[in-house]
Design a protein that fits this description.
Layout: H1 3-20, H2 25-38, H3 41-51, H4 56-72, H5 75-78, E1 81-82, H6 91-103, H7 107-130, H8 138-145, E2 149-150
Parallel strand pairs: 1-2
Length: 154
């Protein structure tokens, strides 16, 4: 899912949470929305390491181009590719945020909620066009998909 969609859905989700639990407040809403969008920074890091290009615009355009190419492939061909290692897209990062909630600040709880909602939206979007759910665990995906072709090779 593209970042602007995560932003819009994050705002809607946060507003629903505020209606249910008004004590979340502005800071909580902001952290939920921002963490739900900024989790995608790992895509940029992956692009940066692969292409050695610091341009955020080039990274975004590359991602969109690869996505269009990928979606134009038949479903059985899509199974031969992976989208790259995204370290924030897995339960490991959620566990870290949850632990930090108890050890450092309850604000990490809002980060946890934002990241969890982001991953949930990615899973919902991913299933129909991939037929599998990636990024439940960054470590597992690295081991499972390392033999597949990188989506940048399409």
């Amino acid at each position: 899912m593209l970042p602007h969609k995560h932003f819009v859905y994050g705002i809607v989700f946060s507003l629903i949470l505020v209606i249910i639990m008004p004590q979340i407040g502005f800071i909580g809403v902001s952290l939920i929305v921002l963490s739900g969008v900024l989790i995608d920074f790992d895509h940029y890091i992956y692009y940066l390491l692969k292409k050695r290009d610091f341009s955020l615009i080039n990274a975004f355009n590359s991602f969109r181009t690869n996505r269009k190419k990928f979606l134009s492939l038949p479903l059985e061909k899509r199974a031969q590719y992976h989208g790259g290692l995204c370290v924030f897209h897995g339960f490991e990062s959620l566990i870290i945020a949850l632990i930090l909630t108890f050890l450092i600040s309850e604000y990490f709880g809002f980060v946890f909620i934002g990241m969890a909602s982001h991953l949930f939206m990615d899973y919902i979007e991913q299933w129909p066009y991939l037929g599998r759910i990636d990024r439940i665990s960054s470590a597992y995906d690295f081991l499972k998909f390392r033999k597949l072709k990188d989506i940048n090779e399409i």
